[in-house]
Amino acid sequence: MLISLRLIVAPLRQKTGRLLVSVLAIALGVALGYAVQLINHSAANEFAQALYTLSGEADLTIRGARGGFDEALYPPIARMPEIAVASPALEIDARLPGRDEPLRVVGLDAMRAGRLQPGLVGEGGDRLDTLRSDRVFLSRGAADWLGLKRGDVLEVQVGLDPVHLRVAGWLEDGAASQRLAVMDIAAAQWRLQRLGRLTRIDLRLRPGVDWAAFQSQLQSQLPAGAFVERPRSTVESNLRLSRAYRVNLNVLALVALFTGALLVFSTQALSVVRRRAELALLRVLGMTRRQLVRLLAVESALIGVIGALLGLAIGHLLAAGIVGAVGADLGGGFFAGVQPKLRWDLTALALFFLAGVIAALAGGLLPAIEAARAPPARALKAGDEQAGYRRTQSPWLGLLLMSSGAAATQLPPVNGLPLFGYLAIALLLIGVIALMPWLAALVFAVLPLPRAASRALAVAQLRGAAAQTGVSLAAIVAAVGLMVSMAIMVASFRSSLDAWLHRMLPADVYLHAGNAGDTGFLDAAAQESIARLPGLQRVEFLRVQQILLDPALARVTLLARDLTPARAEAVLPLVSAVVRPGPGDPPPVWITEPAADLLGLRPGSRVALPLAGRSLPFTVAGIWRDYARQNGALLIERALYVQLTGDRVATDAGLWLAPGMDVDRLSRALRDSVPNGERIELSEPGEIRRLSLTIFDRAFAVTYALEACAILIGLFSLSGSVAALVLARRREFGMLRHIGMTRRQIAAMLGAEGLLSSGLGLAVGLALGWLISLILIHVVNRQSFHWSMELHVPWMGLALFSVVMLALATITAAVSGRQAMGGDVVRAVREDW
After folding, report:
1. pTM of the predicted model as reported, rounded to 2 decimal places
2. Angle subtended at Cα 705 by Cα 703 and Cα 710, rounded to the nearest 5 degrees
């Protein structure tokens, strides 16, 4: 046992620097994966707990459009013999002046809610406060966020008017971490201008009632757009909207771990070749092939164990830092306002520890098997190092894997996730890596010999050790390919978003009654006042609300806009053919790409929209690109919407200014002509674009960080691989010195080798990254978020990155060569006697 331990530890001590790089690569991969998983898991649990708190102990929940449904539905349902308790609720995201995020306000019947949702019953000095129209109870999370205490006044914007509510007390501990306010339901309907509306009814059934049969019976009695479902289904449909984002982040984080495994592979492969004679001697002394494989596997596993333990500790600290910097939603906006408490997750700890160990084991497995297969007698001879790489020079495995990856891109998503897209990327990546030894041999074989002796020797060395060079470039190719693919994907997304914003913002100024929340709107009087303002050429009003078309999906956004069908086709960024409804056909509706995919609609399809409690048919006139609403959006003419619903409210407007009119004069005119006009927000298109791109960069902040990690691992891999190859050739340098080459000539030779080998790795990595970016853009992104985009390559950034990598490889090779030549020349040559 002691001998085996020494056999394991001694080689590791001889390569401390490369061992440290491998450990750090595994640690970085584990840390990123664990941090993202910990944040996502904590945020999703907190979000789900918030939804469960709202439904309480209900067996079934009736819900519909964000604007709610007629409260006349409640009395007959409450009287049904199968129902023990029916608790009506009104949920509203209230607009708070001066804040970018709304506050969730829930109106409840305290008597009913006490039996179903006891955690939402307020605690104050006076129990009658639960019935008073100007009282509100806050959760501790909301009170801390707003900086309010009992007796303070909370101001809410309703329309353009201020509504003042006094803080009467606090909610119980079950809702403490949420940003939530509760008030009497009748008061909420009155003060927040939702008279006669409910957004949900929570039901507890009597013992013995078959909930599935009753659910089917009750659904048949509900108006269009209202659905009855289990509370768990509500939670799942809301979490499904963020699932693709969370899964993509997890996969992206694990990319670093995969690259770390490749770095272990390169390190171990080079180490095994350098120790080929030593390992052969162990075989001669009686060690079996199985024992030799086990010995080398333990070396790799030890790297994985140390790296995984370090990564878990770093990951927890990283998660806490990310939550504090960008929030629990990681910049995606799905869990805004959620402040989860990060706790050690034993399952995630175990999984990512095993992932780190398995990644290191997988990286060292092939070199270990190759070392065990080598005939001891041949391996004991000097100059046999390249024999271990001969099996890697066949191109067929790489071509097979790449072909399989290309085929996987044609397969559909699985349960809404692009699993085959991920598989295609993995197969393409591994296929290219498997192809590298053959590709290196092919490229260096056709490379002409330079006239200068040092550069000619560099080309000759690369020809003779092409397979070894190809193996050493595995981690470099992977890191560069993954970094380039993400850079191209993000640049394409950002460029497409910028072009989309230019197309969608044709007006001179945009007016908002309140960007955050449901309570900011423009009533008919405010709209008339705005339309009569001097200095305006044209005004287009917009009504935005959310409706429920499928209970298994999140609500989709319904846009009612002032336009005609002909103008819609000219203004909207259509990505499909246009279908004009014929005489007698339902009116047109234009849908976004996510809506088309999620609802299975195409141009010419019929879709029923729940408007004013009725199911009304529409014809899909076209599909347009929309990056603002992942849950999907549908657009109809506002005049038709008003005719069908009687709802004349607007939330936004586009204003075209007459010559001589500017934003400052317009703002003053609004304050003078519209009551509470100072609450109206004005934005110019350029300002909206800048803000949108800032939000985009924030949403991709984690992606940028992961790109930086991929670059870091690539640089580590490049330095480690070049240094390892150079230091393994001390005997060769000694012989070259004996025959008359100077140190400067040898350094020039090594610089040329580093430049050529890293140039090949970069070229392959760039091509690989371009191919992966196509899969990310047209498969993964399309299946995950249902958005299309145009390809945009950031040439300047990639060129700068390539120059830095090439310079680093050249410098590293030259410096490593000077280190290798630092010893006695005769002693270096005698090592081969």
Report:
1. 0.82
2. 95
